[in-house]
Every structure is written in C-alpha cells, then in structure tokens.
C-alpha cells in the first residue's frame, strides 16, 4: 500500500512538472482530479462537465484536470493523497472512507437502503452532515457531492440459486471492512483486489464473483467475464467526489463558491441521469448474455438472517442499533 502511495506521489509530481510552469505564467490554479472508473462511465463524464463549468465560471483562474482509469492510483490512494494535500480532488465509494473514518459505515450498512430517494434523505440527514464534518475536521477532506450508482448486485461465473450457494464464491471485494464482514457472514471467501484487477481476476479464476453497481459493470466491460447477475441488492452504492481541504483553502472565496456550486449541480445531474439510464443498462446486460437471477423470498430471508451478525458488527461501537431502522424508515 505504501509503495502504491509513493508511486501515486511520483506520478502527481511528474504531472505537476508538466503543468506547473504554465500555471505560474497565467496564474491558473491546477486541480488534479483522480478517478478509478473508465472515461465513458457516467461519473467520469460528469467530472469533465464540472471541470468545464468551473473553468468557464472562474474565467480560467481554476482548471480541473481529470485523470480517469486509475491513472493517479486507487480510491484509497486518492483519499490518502488528499489528506496530505498531494492530490486535489478524488472519487470514491462513500463506504471506502470507512477505513479512514468509521462513521462512514452509515452509507453501507447491508440491506438498509433501497432507492435513490432514500439515499438522498440519508445524505441530507444530521447523521450524514455530522460524519462529513468530522472527516473535514480530523482528516482534512471535504465532501463535495454524492453520486448514485444504484443497488449493488453479485456478478459470478457460478450459478447461484440459494443462500447456501454463496459458499461456492471467491468474491473480489474492495478493501472495505463492512463488505468483507458481510460476505464472510454469507459464507463466501473474500478476496481484496483493486478495481482495475477485477477483469483479469475473473478471467484467470483468481476470483469467480464480484459485487458492484450495474453502470460500473458495463463501463468497464465486466459483463464479458460474468455469466450471472444475482439480484441481492445487498447495499445501495453512494459514491462521492471529495476535495483536499488544503487545496480548497488555496482558492479565493469566490472560487470556492463556484467549485462547491458546480459540484453540487453536477452531482444532482448525475443522479437524475443515472436513474433515467437504468432501464437501458439492464437491457445492455441482458444483450451481453448475462443471466439475471432473482432469488426467491425464502432464500432472500435466509440471506437477511445470515447478514444480521455483519450488520450488528458493522455499527458496533459506532452507532446504536436503532440507526438501522431509522435508515430503513427513510424509505417511507
């Protein structure tokens, strides 16, 4: 992990050397924006739109350079680099911040969020605002907006029809404690791999399953290495754009307002666009030959029962147990 962070720092320093002189000449402030997703992913497209908006509205005084496809490292690298003020803006699943601020498990408690509207209510809640403030105060990371990536399902090369079948799976997972605990509880074998290694991992049999949102599956061509989509909806993916507070404070008050507004509007556009595109994404998955399997109510109830210890473990010492029902009630 340290070697990866050092590599990220060296890449950014090299890029700074390429752009630094131009930045000094015209006094343009360069903000480097790292994303692990492919350029045609909706989040990457929104990032480019936000960058254009900021550049125009600041009359060129702030230029956001977008680096997709993991050019600046992994999501964890973005977070660590932002804390050090090395990278300016990053993209991560909100659950990925759990490794740095445990309270971010709020967004990733299994089987609690079921819709975009409910996710928005959670984002706007006092719980959410408090944990974001803590991240800012203690880690120097400012959340800019949330992004809707929809329900997370399980993609496999194995046919899964029952709760017991999960024991057949070696699951690629992000380095997120809550996810690892969940699939441990479901009797699968967790295997932490970088997002960029999913394709090769599935192709070579290092893993035979992964869990992410539908758009990320399609934009990274992962439907090519999966035969089945198991509709577990075990969590609802809230991703987010964040900024190093050290970088944010280098902007003028007016530039700060423009950046915050551009990201807020960009985030809302992504949410609307994603929801409109969901039916198309599902059809694309079917056209690729991936069979979608819907588990019976009986088998889903078995999954819920198996997941209960992981749910309790995920919030132990962080939140009271009643928060699970509070979040579920936000669906009403």
Q: What are the low-pLDDT stretches, counting only 5+ consecutive residues below 50?
A: 17-25
Give the domain tally: 1
What would CATH call the homologous superfamily?
Answer: Bacterial extracellular solute-binding protein, family 7
Order of helices and strands: HEHEHEHHEEHEHEHEHHEHH
Total count of strands: 9
Structural class designation: alpha/beta
Percentage of β-strand residues: 15-25%
Number of helices: 12
Oligomer: single chain
> Ends: how far apart?
42 Å
* CATH architectural label: 3-Layer(aba) Sandwich
Helix content: 40-55%
Look up the CATH topology: D-Maltodextrin-Binding Protein, domain 2
- Give a quick account of the main beta sheet: strands, pairing sense, barrel closure: 9 strands, mixed
Mean pLDDT, rounded to whole units? Answer: 92
């Amino acid at each position: 992990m340290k070697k990866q962070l050092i590599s990220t720092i060296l890449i950014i320093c090299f890029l700074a050397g390429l752009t630094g002189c131009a930045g000094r000449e015209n006094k343009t402030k360069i903000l480097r924006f790292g994303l692990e997703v492919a350029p045609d992913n909706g989040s990457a497209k929104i990032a480019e739109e936000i960058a254009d908006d900021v550049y125009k509205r600041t009359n060129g005084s702030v230029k956001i350079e977008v680096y997709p496809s993991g050019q600046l490292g992994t999501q964890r690298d973005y977070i660590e680099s932002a804390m050090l003020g090395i990278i300016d803006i990053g993209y991560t699943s909100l659950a990925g911040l759990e490794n740095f601020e445990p309270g971010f498990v709020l967004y990733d408690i299994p089987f609690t969020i079921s819709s975009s509207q409910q996710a928005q209510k959670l984002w706007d809640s006092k719980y959410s605002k408090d944990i974001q403030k803590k991240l800012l105060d203690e880690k120097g990371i400012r959340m800019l907006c949330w992004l809707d990536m929809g329900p997370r399902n399980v993609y496999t090369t194995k046919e899964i029809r029952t709760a017991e079948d999960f024991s057949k799976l070696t699951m690629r997972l992000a380095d997120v404690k809550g996810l690892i605990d969940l699939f441990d509880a479901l009797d699968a074998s967790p295997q932490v791999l970088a997002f960029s290694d999913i394709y090769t991992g599935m192709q070579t049999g290092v893993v035979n399953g992964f869990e992410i949102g539908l758009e990320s599956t399609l934009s990274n061509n992962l439907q090519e290495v999966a035969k089945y989509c198991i509709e577990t909806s075990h969590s609802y993916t809230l991703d987010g754009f964040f900024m190093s507070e050290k970088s944010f404070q280098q902007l003028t008050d007016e530039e700060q307002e423009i950046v915050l507004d551009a990201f807020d509007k960009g985030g809302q556009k992504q949410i609307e666009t994603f929801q409109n595109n969901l039916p198309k994404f599902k059809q694309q998955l079917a056209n690729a030959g991936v069979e979608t399997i819907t588990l019976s109510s009986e088998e889903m109830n078995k999954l819920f029962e198996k997941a209960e210890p992981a749910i309790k473990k995920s919030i132990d010492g962080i939140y009271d147990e009643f928060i699970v029902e509070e979040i579920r009630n936000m669906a009403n």
